[in-house]
Known about the structure:
Elements: E1 3-8, H1 16-29, E2 34-39, H2 41-44, H3 51-68, E3 76-79, H4 85-94, H5 99-103, H6 106-112, H7 122-136, E4 142-145, H8 150-167, E5 176-179, H9 213-222, H10 239-252, H11 256-262, H12 268-294, H13 297-325
Parallel strand pairs: 1-2, 2-3, 4-5
Helix pairs in contact: 3-12, 4-7, 4-13, 7-8, 9-12, 10-12
Tryptophan is lined by residues 5-7, 9, 40, 43, 131, 134-135, 143, 145, 149.
Amino acid sequence: MKRVFSGVQPTGNLHIGNYLGALKQFVELQEQHQCIYCVVDMHSITLPQEPQELREHILDIAALYMAVGVDPKKSIIFIQSEVSGHAELGWILNCASYMGELSRMTQFKDKSKGKENGSIPSGIFTYPVLMAADILLYDADIVPVGNDQKQHIELTRDLAIRINNRFQKQTFVVPEGRFLKEGARIMALDDPTSKMSKSAENDFSRISLLDSDTKIKKAIMKATTDSDAVVRYDIEKKPGVSNLLSIYSTFSGISIEDLEKQYEGCGYGNFKKDLVEVTIDAIRPIRERFEEIRNSLELTKVLDDGRERAEAIAEKTLARVKTDFGLGR
Ligand code: AMP
Ligand code: TRP
């Protein structure tokens, strides 16, 4: 049985892009592997967070993992900052990484663009090393993430291989990224040329997993299409309609081809109305399950249990790593 590790930052509510692109696979993977899903709260403080809000978001993400179908009997769900091994291994890995390789991370370059060195938090610079620590701490074989994390996985592998070579033994398991399909890239409803994102200003650009039926309806009815009124998949010429077709197809299980046939000669009105229904049917059970779990004793128990199980694995790895490095006595 292989081990899977992944994490989501508690910086806001998850949207259907996160669900279709990432969380849905988290659920599928737990049928065949031992999965560990983490709420990476220490990653989110690379930028200042409002403490009260951060704490709410941490519990939201944990509850959302469960609401979409991550089963705590099969998988471990836990909060990063509750297992101190992440910070400890993060430091050790920092000592094995180079300024040069961290400077080349495109996410770092994007986030620090136009800023003076004096005003870039060093957490943003070393953040990929903490991510490497998350993964290596659990001897993970597979890391399901979006394409945007490819470089960070590559760095994780480089660090593992570098240290294994130095000590001439398998201090770390060298993990592999499992990159989510391009087809699962959901675009913004108001601008189908950019990715649906948690942080876009226009709330109608996305559908959050916790949105009300009314909000979902409004967002879809307002979604950008085009003027030729033909329901056809063509990313280049019809990015808006194509995005809606992708969402429809993934939620309903009907192929895009069949949808094109079904809506031939219909215009966009009925198509959108049906998509509203399909989307509401998919989201409603998630939202209802979320509301059941969010403030329940069950969530507390799952997170306590998750911390214990995660800690047991982390402790072993850390002991092995400290021995290999010659730390302690
Ligand atoms: P983020 O919201 O950037 O923290 O991403 C969490 C996970 O969701 C990552 O695995 C992303 O690749 C994935 N993801 C984020 N936005 C989208 C999107 N619009 N379409 C598909 N997957 C996405
Ligand atoms: N950096 C990832 C993101 O922003 C989140 C993350 C942190 C992660 N640690 C991880 C993902 C370990 C996978 C494995 O999406």
